[in-house]
Amino acid sequence: MTGTGMGLLAGLTTCAALHTGLLAGLAGRPGGPARLVASFLTGKLAAHTALGALLGGVGAAVQPGPPARGLLLMLSAVLLAFFALRLLRPRPPDHGCPRPSRLGHPLLVGAATVLVPCGITLSAELLAVASGSPLTGAAVMAGFVLGTAPLTGILGLSVSLLHGLPARLLGVALLGVAAWTMAGGLRLGGWLPDTGRAPPVDARHVATDASGVQTITVHALDDGYRPALLSARAGVPTVLVLSTSGTTGCTRAFTLPRRGTSLLLPESGRTRIELGTPPPGRLGFVCAAGHYPGSITFR
Q: How is 176-187 classified by DSSP, letter by letter?
C-alpha cells in the first residue's frame, strides 16, 4: 500500500511531468492513444517490478548512492527539457496526418523509465531495499507503477490532442519542472551550495550529555524537516537523532549526500546516526527525492 501511495503522489507531481513529455514524444504512432498508453504502462510495470525484486533481494549492494541518484535525476531533467523544447517548437501543418514519432516502441520507452526516475521513484526504491525480500520489493515497485497509472492514462489519452497554444503552455510548464528536477538532482548529489544562514545553537534541538556526547534532534515531517537549519559544536562526538510520528512522505528517505548515507526511517520512531566528531563546516541533508533540504553548521 505504501508503494501505491507513493505512486499516486508521484503521478500528481514529477512523474506526471516526465511521462507527459515521453507520451508527447510518442504521440502520432500507429494504433491510437489507448494502445500507446497500455503498451507504455506494461513496459514500465515489468521493468519496475523486476527492479523491485532485485532491490529487495540484493538490497543496498545494487542501490546507487546519492551522487549516482542525483545524476539520474539530472538526466531526467535534461530529458524533460528536450520534450519541452519540442512542444515549444513551431510545427508545420500536418494536413490531418500524424507525424511519425522518433522515439522507440512504447513498450521499450515505458521500460526505459526505470533509467530516468522521478524523485519519488527513488524514495520507493529505498522502500524496496528496506523490505529485504524479492517478493515484497517487487510488490512495492509494482504498486508504485499502478499508483501512477490513472493520471498517466489520462495524460496519454489527451496529450495527442494538444496543438498550438495549449501545447506551448505545456512546454513552458515542463521547462519549469525540468529546472526544479535539475535542482533536486544537484541537491541530492551534494553539488548545490547551501546558502542558508546558520542560526545560533538552539538548546531545544542540540544537547550535550554528561559524557560529552552531543545529540542533534531533527523531526522528519511530511512537508519537510524541522528544524531545517541548525548549528552545533564541531570536534565533539555527535549523534543525529531523526524523529518521525506518522510520517509517510519522502522525508522518510533521509540522505546525507556528502557522506553517501541513505536510509529509510520508520513511520514513527527515533533513528540514531553516529556522526563521529564532525570538523567545522556544513553537513547537508535532503530527502531521497532531492526535495526538503537542510543543513547542520558545525563551528
A: HHHHHHHHHHHH
> DSSP E strands: which ranges in the chain?
206-208, 214-221, 224-226, 229-232, 238-245, 253-256, 261-264, 268-276, 281-287, 294-298
The answer to whether the CB of 77 falls within 8 A of the CB of 192 is no
Please write the tens of the pLDDT for every residue from 175-222. 888 898 899 999 999 998 876 678 888 889 999 999 999 999 999 999
131 & 12 share domain: yes
In a domain, residue 197? The reply is no
Burial grade of 164 (CB within 10 A; 0-12, 13-18, 19 or more): exposed
Residues 6+ apart with CB under 8 A from 270: 241, 242, 243, 244
**Is 21:178 a contact under the CB 8 Å cutoff?**
no
What is the per-residue pLDDT across 140-149, written as a single tens digit (0 to 9) for each? 999 888 888 8
Residue 58 one-letter amino acid: V
Alpha-carbon gap, residue 254 to 191, rounded angstroms:
17
Assess whether pLDDT exceeds 50 at residue 30: yes
CB 29 within 8 Å of CB 101: yes
Helices and strands counted in the chain (H then E): 8, 10
**Of 207 and 19, which is predicted with more confidence?**
207
Query: Which of 144, 162, 188 delimits the end of a domain?
Result: 188
